[in-house]
Amino acid sequence: MLFYYIITRDNKYASHDIIYKNNEYGENFNRGRVTERVNIISKEFLGHYISTKELSILVYLKYTSINEGVVDPDRIDYIDLENINKWIKLGYMYIIETNKNNITDSRFKIYMRHDFFNFINEIQWFAYVENKLK
Fold first, then answer.
1. Which of 80, 115, 118, 121 could form a disulfide with 76 if both were Cys (CB 3.0 to 4.6 A apart)?
2. So where are the chain's domains?
3. Contact indicator for 3, 16 with CB cutoff of 8 Å
């Protein structure tokens, strides 16, 4: 069982293994949906709730970092670029252009901090995995 801990006002650790709203309250599970639990985790780490669009680009960035580590510009749009730039400015990740000589095939190598990767992994688990063990 995974636990997500935060420090409470009295400096004690409290478990946030509390919400499976999509199952406990009779809602149908929808893959890729921003659940209440995803919102709690994103608010804690990023300071704001994420949209479905942010969730999808985070999952894509995790996928690329695990595999070839290269972001294909054809797979992302303007809003994704704004989010990526925001996370770069916050120091969670950075990118390096890999093929500067060929403008038509410019790709970007992605590097991200360990805690940012873990954040993405956790929200992906709550947003995409239906069969959770308690």
1. 80
2. 5-128
3. yes
**CA–CA separation, 112 and 93 (whole Å):** 4
- Exposed (0-12), middle (13-18) or buried (19+): which is 69, by Cβ within 10 Å? middle
Question: How far, in Å, CA of 64 to CA of 71, rounded?
Answer: 6
DSSP notation for 25-71? TSPPP-TT---HHHHHHHHHHHSSPPPHHHHHHHHHHHHHHHTT-EE
Fold of 5-128: Arc Repressor Mutant, subunit A (1.10.10)
Task: Indicate the helix (H) or strand (E) that contains 9.
Answer: none
85: amino acid identity, one letter: N
pTM (2 decimals)?
0.70
Measured between alpha carbons, how far is 123 from 62 in angstroms, rounded to an integer? 11
| Amino acid residing at 101 | N
**Which of 30, 27, 14 has the alpha carbon at shortest distance from 130?**
30
